[in-house]
Specification:
Elements (H helix, E strand, L loop, with lengths): L1 H14 L2 H17 L3 H4 L1 H8 L12 H12 L2 H11 L8 H25 L2 E2 L5 E2 L2 H9 L4 H19 L2 H15 L6 E4 L2 E4 H18 L2 H30 L4 H12 L12 H17 L6 H5 L7 H29 L17 H11 L6 H33 L4 H17 L6 H24 L1 H26 L1
Antiparallel strand pairs: 1-2, 3-4
């Protein structure tokens, strides 16, 4: 088993190596050029459309609900743990944060294009059920001869959902966070199948499974209904906590910002090694930005397709807000908090080794709120982790089901079977060793991106042409309204 795990890790490193990261970033740069920096000049409009429903739009849920469903799968443990990993002293350092912003900037153009194509090529049946996503814009946008590639995407997407990102890794992260807070010394345990687990793990796993099942069985409307309440609420709480930390320690902010830019372009060696910091910072920052906002992976357009709208450009603008919120706002809050408090280079006093993962963010919160008992900042962080991971379970269930629906030609019995297997995976997740499963999911995630990136490049002309038409039409309408008011 250990040998198998090592082989998987080697495959994962190859799939998610420099070539794929460069490809995803290059597609974002290419689309940015073709769309003439749309993500910069039209961001205010996008933020307005995010809260403004379109009249007479067809779909199953509002544009805001579709965005929240997509955000439910992207705003997760990566925003707390992933950023800490990227800026850690053993990884890219503070400079990785700048390259995360760069990845997000170009990723917004990619996410816009995905949302645009999701609406343009979606299918709505007589009952109002919406089917859309990369498999549909590959088949109907690129042509039927590319249906095999659409099937490949759908297969990898279904596997990603049930084999790790949506199930095992998330529920395992929740149960681990609860155990770390309530029973870090594992004093209260129970024997299950010959192994010892804490009651914190057992109870948290059972509670999350029950609540996830109640939401998932209700389908997209219930998932989106929960997501548009929980995601904004928890994101606001987490952002406010970070802002409060930054304001309380405002004197450290200028130095932190300077450090981010200095380290981003630093050429000094890392820990006596040969790789310059700048290259490691770029790799870790760009990779973590992509992992966090999923721009280019093809997951978000599956949710975007269900939006009640008739204008692809409009939904594309709303979709790109997801990357802005996820990386530019949430990840930035985490990164600045860590750099300001020096937690990226903090050392565990017990082991003598640098903190890793969630330990880094927890250290930053405890140092930033040093006037409070240590348990309070840790509790806030645990609650955010639990809810972020819970919404990721919901979002990836929807993605996986739509992929399965496309694979089996709409046979709902197969989709329902997938749904119950998904719930079962959530139930058994706390009791599994997730390293191999997470690696498998990582590989499928990378493979899932390839057909989607091909489609974005192939259909970039359609995206560019329709966007220019809409922008010109919108500008004329705005000018007429301004003259009418005058």
């Amino acid at each position: 088993m250990e040998k198998f795990t090592k082989i998987l890790e080697q495959i994962d490193a190859y799939v998610w190596g420099i070539p794929l990261i460069v490809l995803i970033l290059s597609v974002g740069i290419y689309l940015t050029i073709r769309l003439k920096l749309l993500q910069v000049f039209h961001l205010p409009k996008a933020l307005k459309f995010m809260f403004q429903n379109e009249g007479n739009g067809k779909g199953e849920i509002s544009s805001f609900a579709a965005l929240c469903t997509a955000l439910s799968a992207t705003i997760g443990t990566g925003n707390i743990v992933g950023v800490a990993t990227a800026v850690g002293i053993l990884s890219g350092g503070p400079g990785a944060l700048l390259w995360m912003w760069v990845a997000a900037l170009f990723g917004m153009a990619t996410k816009y294009s995905e949302g645009f194509l999701a609406i343009k090529y979606r299918k709505i049946d007589a009952d109002g059920h919406v089917c859309g996503g990369p498999f549909y814009y590959i088949e109907y946008g690129m042509g039927r001869k590319w249906k095999w590639m659409a099937k490949v995407f759908a297969f990898f997407g279904a596997c990603v959902g049930i084999f790790g990102i949506g199930t095992f890794s998330q529920i395992n992260g929740i149960s681990s966070a609860v155990q770390t807070f309530f029973d870090p010394k594992r004093e209260h345990t129970v024997s299950i199948f010959g192994n010892e687990y804490t009651w914190a793990v057992v109870i948290s796993g059972l509670v999350v499974t029950v609540f996830a099942a109640l939401v998932i069985i209700g389908g997209i409307k219930r998932i989106s209904g929960v997501s548009q309440i929980v995601v904004p609420f928890m994101a606001v709480i987490y952002i406010l906590a970070c802002i409060t930390l930054i304001v309380i320690n405002i004197g450290k902010l200028p130095h932190a910002i300077v450090l981010v830019f200095e380290e981003a372009f630093s050429l000094k060696a890392v820990a006596g090694g040969s790789m310059p910091t700048i290259f490691l910072a770029i790799q870790k920052g760009v990779a973590r930005g992509i992992f966090s906002n999923e721009a280019g992976l093809g997951s978000a357009p599956i949710a975007a397709a269900a939006a009640q709208t008739k204008e692809p450009v409009r939904q594309g603008l709303v979709s790109m807000c997801g990357t802005f919120i996820d990386t530019i706002i949430v990840c930035t809050m985490t990164g600045l908090s860590i750099v300001m408090m020096g937690s990226y280079q903090a050392v565990n006093p017990v082991t003598g080794k640098p903190f890793e993962g969630v330990e880094v963010t927890t250290h930053a919160f405890q140092q930033g709120f040093s006037f409070l008992p240590e348990k309070i900042p840790a509790f806030i962080l645990m609650i955010c982790l639990v809810f972020f991971a819970f919404t990721t379970i919901l979002g990836w269930n929807y993605y996986g089901e739509r992929c399965m629906e496309y694979l089996v030609g709409g046979r709902m019995k197969a989709v329902m079977t997938y749904r119950y297997l998904y719930i079962l995976a959530v139930f058994i997740g706390p009791y599994m060793t997730v390293s191999a499963v997470w690696t498998i999911a990582d590989i499928f995630n990378g493979l899932m991106a390839l057909p989607n990136l091909v489609a974005l490049l192939a259909l970039s002309g359609v995206i560019s042409k329709d966007t220019r038409r809409y922008v010109a039409k919108y500008s004329r309408a705005k000018k007429i309204n301004r003259l009418a008011r005058a």
